[in-house]
Amino acid sequence: MPRLLTDQAIEHYHREGYYFPVRVLDRREAAHQLSLLQRFEVAQGNPISGAQRSKSHLLFQWVDDLMRHASILDAVEDLIGPDILCWNTLFWIKEARSETFVSWHQDLRYWGLDTDDLVSVWLALSPATVESGCMRVLPRSHKGDLLPHDDEYQPHNLLTRGQEIAVPVDEAAAVSMPLQPGEISMHNVRLAHASTPNRSDNRRVGLSLHYMPTCAKQTVSQWDSAALVRGEDRFGHFTNTPRPQKDFDPIAVEFHERATDAVREILFRDAEKVRETL
Ligand SMILES: O=C(O)CCC(=O)C(=O)O
């Protein structure tokens, strides 16, 4: 018996490479999580940016809690089984009326992981609409070989290298995945996806969480980390990340520096230039 998803949803995910929407937080909870982010941004005087966007569960206790949220993990377990690591948690923010976009890409091309079973959960903390530049996916593109990519480094691209699929993408076949605050979409690590600039008056705030089975391996760097969020890790391929006891817990902050350095090394392997993303 599935824990949260219907049999049809599970079948759709495996066939098409994505599934949405699934409500995991009620609107009040989602608004509370957004207020925690905003409180931090007001205190630091700037929007969250650069390395703060990545492995954020090590900086913010509330992101660590979200990463372990039972409803999210139930949905993920329905797709990849009961022993689950979370590799990364990453904020995707487009300010109102901004040019910020994401080019068509496949995540597995850059992440150095040897698993096809990684599920990217994208949690909306504000409305992600067609107008505000919600995610778009290319159904069934998770089947077959990974496509060639070029690094374009466009200034408004949220991706590290501005990586872009180097063959024509059939835009007419793309599916938009609008989400309301507290809803998630899920897509496979091989699926081609992208998003357009924010043409709305609202800030679009999303958090992606990258879940994989514990048997996954990192093939690019000697060392990498992930959080054991459910079940048992009988493989030990990743160092388990510490749980922050409060926001900016010194032990977790120190670990965050090492962990994001390792991720940066993986993502920029063989790249012409290294840059901090927005
Ligand atoms: O937030 C977006 O528009 C794109 C997110 C993305 O590329 C991802 O979650 O893998």
Q: What descriptors fit this protein?
A:
single chain; 278 residues; alpha+beta; Jelly Rolls; seven-stranded mixed sheet; four-stranded antiparallel sheet; 6 helices; 13 strands; 24% helix; 23% strand; binds 2-oxoglutaric acid
Order of helices and strands: HEHHHEEHEEEEEEEEEEH
**Tally of helical runs:** 6
The whole-angstrom Rg is 17 Å
Please give the largest β-sheet.
7 strands, mixed
The CATH architecture term is Sandwich
Bound molecules: 2-oxoglutaric acid
Q: Estimate the strand proportion.
A: 15-25%
Work out the count of structural domains: 1
Any idea of the CATH topology?
Jelly Rolls
Number of strands: 13
- The chain-level structural class is alpha+beta
Q: Report the principal-axis shape.
A: globular
CATH superfamily: q2cbj1_9rhob like domain
CATH class: Mainly Beta
Spans of at least 5 consecutive residues with low confidence: none
Please tell me the overall pLDDT: 95
Query: Can you list the strand order of the major beta sheet?
Result: 1-9-4-11-2-12-13
Helicity range: 10-25%
Distance between the ends: 42 Å
What does this structure look like?
The chain has 278 residues and is an alpha+beta fold. It has one domain (7-267): Jelly Rolls (Sandwich), CATH 2.60.120. It contains six helices and 13 strands. It has helices at 7-16, 27-44, 61-67, 70-80, 108-111, 250-267, and strands spanning 18-23, 84-94, 102-105, 119-124, 135-137, 149-151, 163-165, 175-176, 183-188, 193-195, 204-213, 225-230, 239-240. The chain has a seven-stranded mixed β-sheet. A four-stranded antiparallel β-sheet has the order 3-10-5-8, with no helix packed on it. A two-stranded antiparallel sheet has the order 6-7. The longest helix has 18 residues, at 27-44. The radius of gyration is 17 Å and the shape is globular. The protein starts with 6 loop residues before the first helix and ends in an 11-residue tail after the last helix. The site of 2-oxoglutaric acid has 10 residues, from β4, β10 and β11.
